[in-house]
Design brief:
It is built from four helices and eleven strands, in the order βαββββαβαββαβββ. By secondary structure, the chain is of the alpha+beta class. The protein has one domain. It has a five-stranded antiparallel sheet. A three-stranded antiparallel sheet has the order 1-6-11, with helices on one face. The termini are far apart.
């Protein structure tokens, strides 16, 4: 399984940032113990990460082949787990709420490749599990004039949020499990040390 990007390589920043509220968690990430959170868990989590609309794609299509507005909504029966990171130019005020310990992912594509290499051997993996880093689109429930392939690919289920979250400038690593897989709040992959591609900084 090769790592791929949903857009051109140049569209992905050369580094990404991930914030942690404890130094221990940041160190574990650098050591290669990557904790993915269950997507739907963020609908009910009791902190600043809560988003009641996670796991649901939603748009209103207007124009083109749609003479009248068409509502598009999609969810998935498959459990999805995500690691969230942000563009390096993100305003620190937008991510400081997640913690003051920042890990700089100095090679996002190499990290993706290591994740894919481990995940492809996991019995929980769906055959259609993404092998990409997905930039979050901040257009949930918005009106859009044209429908592109990306709208129908299913990726908006795990890569779409409301405009109110746009300051976070988020990118996601995604694991898709087989339907019927037991849903735990998190899933941890051990991809081996990432100290060669990740470093710890502070806000």
């Amino acid at each position: 399984m090769s790592a791929q990007l949903p857009f051109t390589q140049s569209a992905l920043p050369s580094t990404l940032l991930r914030a942690f509220d404890k130094r221990e968690y940041a160190r574990q990430f650098i050591e290669g113990r990557l904790r993915f959170g269950l997507l739907e868990h963020y609908k009910r989590i009791e902190d600043c990460r809560r988003d009641r609309t996670e796991g649901r794609a939603s748009l209103t299509l207007v124009g083109g082949s749609h003479p009248s507005p068409a509502y598009y909504s999609l969810s998935s029966p498959n459990p999805h787990y995500i690691i969230c990171a942000s563009h390096p130019a993100v305003c620190t005020c937008a991510i400081s709420k997640f913690g003051k310990f920042l890990v700089c992912i100095n090679d996002p594509v190499e990290l993706l490749a290591r994740i894919c290499e481990v995940w492809k051997h996991d019995d929980r993996r769906s055959l259609s599990s993404p092998t990409s880093i997905w930039p979050v689109l901040y257009n949930k429930d918005d009106r859009v004039e044209l429908a592109s392939d990306i709208l129908y690919s299913g990726c908006l289920v795990y890569a779409q949020k409301a405009l109110a979250y746009a300051m976070e400038r988020e990118y996601r690593y995604v694991l898709k499990c087989r339907s019927g897989t037991k849903k735990d709040e998190s899933l941890t992959l051990n991809v081996g040390t990432c100290s060669d591609i990740c470093s710890l900084i502070f806000l």
